[in-house]
Amino acid sequence: LFPLPVDAGHRAVIFDRFRGVQDVVVGEGTHFLIPWVQKPIIFDCRSRPRNVPVITGSKDLQNVNITLRILFRPVTAQLPRIFTSIGEDYDERVLPSITTEILKSVVVSAA
Known about the structure:
- This protein is α+β, with helices and mostly antiparallel strands.
- Helix content is 25%, strand content 46%.
- Strand 6 (48-57) and strand 7 (63-72) form a beta hairpin.
- The longest helix has 21 residues, at 90-110.
- The termini are far apart.
- InterPro entries: Band_7 (IPR001107), Prohibitin (IPR000163).
- Residues 2-111 form the Band domain.
- One of its GO terms (biological process) is mitochondrion organization.
- One of its GO terms (cellular component) is mitochondrial inner membrane.
């Protein structure tokens, strides 16, 4: 067994070579894993900022430059599902498309 330290504000998902991704989310503290059989995937569950710049058109056909600052964090209970369906870089894959569409709809409705 080898120790797995999980820092404050982080959570870990355990990948088992025989059973796959386990549904249990490991919290802060020191946990023990079986070498070669289990591999930890550590997620940062603290609120993190992200700036998303968008250039969009308004109703009167003018270009509008908007930068949106988002504070995001994953839902801790859903980390195994997030890892299996999206991956470790979930924020890079999900946030740009969602924020771009929401900002465009807000600009169109406000103008």
